[in-house]
Amino acid sequence: MTNVNLSAAVDLSNLLNKGEEQKAKQLPDPKSYHLLCIVPEAEKEYASGIAKATQSIQYDEVLTPVLFVLKLGPDAYKDEKRFPSGPSCKEGDFVIVRPTPVRA
């Protein structure tokens, strides 16, 4: 077994223990034509009031086809040939995308 030098390990506690506002300031700015979108937070319980299992909440978040647009890149929707009627979304809009399959 090899010896591990823990003194050289990176301490991530400073990053992980930040508040929501500080974390939001760390989001990247999209470049070129890219959009920065987030997944809306999933409901913690069903309409009947029964609490959802943690795995069900995770599936709801991963499989959702709805994203919230935070920022647009500087070149987003600039191509008038592809977008003759202008942008299809703006900051603050919800967009529908193809859900990503869950791999077990």
Please give a quick description of this structure.
With 104 residues, this protein is of the alpha+beta class. It is built from three helices and three strands, in the order ααβαββ.
State the secondary-structure class. alpha+beta
Order of helices and strands: HHEHEE
Give me the side-by-side strand order of the main sheet: 1-2-3
Indicate the overall shape: extended
**Tally of contiguous helical segments:** 3
Task: Flag low-confidence runs.
Answer: none
Strand content: 5-15%
Rounded mean pLDDT score: 84
Oligomer: single chain
The tally of beta strands, per DSSP, is: 3
Number of domains: 1
Instruction: Describe the main β-sheet briefly.
Output: 3 strands, antiparallel
State the end-to-end distance: 31 Å
Q: Measured on Cα atoms, how large is the radius of gyration?
A: 19 Å
Helical coverage, percent range? 10-25%
What does this molecule look like?
This protein has a 3-stranded antiparallel sheet, with no helix packed on it. It is α+β, with helices and mostly antiparallel strands and 104 residues long. It is extended and about 60 Å long. The protein has one domain (29-104). It has helices at 13-16, 20-24, 54-63, and strands at residues 35-38, 66-72, 94-96. The longest helix has 10 residues, at 54-63. Helix content is 18%, strand content 13%.
